[in-house]
Amino acid sequence: MISTQINETALVNQAQNGDRNAYGELVRTHSQGVLNVVYRMCGNKHLAEDAAQEAFIQAWLKLSSYQPRASFRSWLYRIAVNSAIDMLRKEKRILPDAVEDYFLMDPSPGPESMLASTERAELVRKAIVTLPDASRAVLVLREYEGLSYQEIAETIDIPIGTVMSRLNYARKLLKEKLKMHLFSYAEAEHV
Amino acid sequence: MSDHILEQLGPYLDGELHGKSLQKVKLHLTECITCQEEYTSLENLSATLQEAPLPDFPSPEDFASDLALLLPRKPALPIREKALEFGWWLAPIGLIAIWMFISTTNLVSGAITFANSLGVLNDTSTWLVSGSAPETYWSAALGQFGFLSGNNLQIAEMAEAITRITIPQIVWQVSLATLYLSWMAIWWARHERQGLGQALES
Ligand SMILES: [Zn+2]
User: For residue A39, with 0-12 CB atoms within 10 Å meaning exposed, 13-18 middle and 19 or more buried, which class applies?
Assistant: First the structure.
């Protein structure tokens, strides 16, 4: 296909001049990545779809402010992360405590009760959502999008040292939140 | 045994360590159980995180076509570009305004000069037309040396006076016209390109 050969910079340029088809191509390329990021950020499928749409609308509106010194993906993910945080905040205003309480009130199954993988996945999802915004964004970009520290620094616009400390902090919190389940998981693997 | 390297384990797991710091962590891990355990727990955490599946999201095609319906017509221009765009459309109006201003000034100054020469205005009004009385250095000089005399001198003086007034007028009118035509040409080029872009789009 010809369109895949056109490099991203050219597409971005065309889109900046108002070319909707070029932007559509960029959306197709990055939709799954953005959906993943916002889903991991807010832990809810419908919120994620709304946040992803909002992110792409915002990106279209702000497109002329994009400068190619950062990669387009970094620029886009930054908008996506903020969109997810906003969406979650709005949702919490409408349904206060809906997200956090569910996790906190979850009757902790002891190490003896083995969790089904779907349940474990559910706990992980909720544990991530309860992380502070700043640490959560760094963790999601690293663990789920596999971005390098440099790329994360570029995306969130923070120094690499801060990426490292936020990531350490997020992992520390997650290990505490998931301690029992992690232990049971690890034991299950070694039985 | 050296101090623990707990802070370095995350970067080590993420493949972000190189050179000396990488060697240091590798060496430490061979001899420290505390850090080994911490590293294993990080690996486990990462594996657990990866385990959480993604829901079924719309395909890139579906997502893009849904989004296309929501996108505003054109991306908004930032303020700086808006100002430039505004200035661009203001340019021809500015040129016409300058042309009208200079023409009016010339007309008024011409009328005053004419009135002055008829003696309608008294001396106090001559400041209005200071410098408007055309100088005729060259004709006068030629007359002094006897190259021109009588009618010829008068004709030469008139010709020089007219040239001194009209040449600058022609020059600025032509420059303004050139600027205006350039603006028209650029506008036309931009318009054509936009039309072409839209034609390609549809
Ligand atoms: Zn150690």
Answer: buried
